[in-house]
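Class prep. Protein, please:
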Amino acid sequence: MAIGFEELDEVFAAMANEHRRAMVLALALRPHSISELADQRGLSLPAIHKHVRVLEDSGMVTRRKTGRTNWLALRREPLLGLQGWIDQFAPWWGTDDEHLDNYATHLDAHPTEEGNQ
């Protein structure tokens, strides 16, 4: 799934905080109420609401109100977009030998002025 650079920046920013990463992990298992997430993370409601806002603004979570309870659910699309962006680097991953072979191929294809061939 393709994701634009602006959306990608928001997802990276949302995932840059350990509390939000833990919230995403919890929400990947099942929807949670905001108060459940606050209890799990040991955060006050005002603090958890700030994290929820960042996740909502990034498009990673949706909120549904049932009675007086706000439920959050994880959206797959932003994470799939992030995965798609990261997957473009897969050719450089692998065993150490493969990594060195890829680096050698890169050096062969891009010789420097110092004669690196």
